[in-house]
Give the backbone structure.
Amino acid sequence: MTPGQLQVLDCVRDMLTYDVSPSVREIAKACDITVSQAHGRIAALVDCGALERGAGKQRNLKLVDLPDLRAIPTDAIRAELARRGVVLDALSTRTRRAVGHEVTCAADTCGAVVQFGHLFCREHWFKLDEGLRRGILRAFADKDVSTYQRLVAQARDEIDGCAA
């Protein structure tokens, strides 16, 4: 795998954390390459088996051989991480729970099912400061992953503070 292909694979992996497969143009923009180069690198990754294309023509990239960690008990994951010497900041319930094809609110204490593309349920979203809501939307639209993750963590902390 070439460094360019690895860059595209990392980009796809990062974008899939938002539960939406990226378009070729989004990949090209994020990797600072042309659309033609993005097509070539994606085709090479599909050929080598690192990516696969799903049904449809657009936004259909999937990572290959990605284990579904939801089926593995948390204690087993913690034990394996400890065996490897990996220390996490915190193992918490800060991951969104997926039930079948449904996704729940990102608030730790909420199990409400949200619409595809929504981060929080309506109740929790409107408990957030308007500036924070706008910042989250702007970071998502700009594909600024680090700012987006920081603002979502801040939003969760704010919601947890309201619940306490």
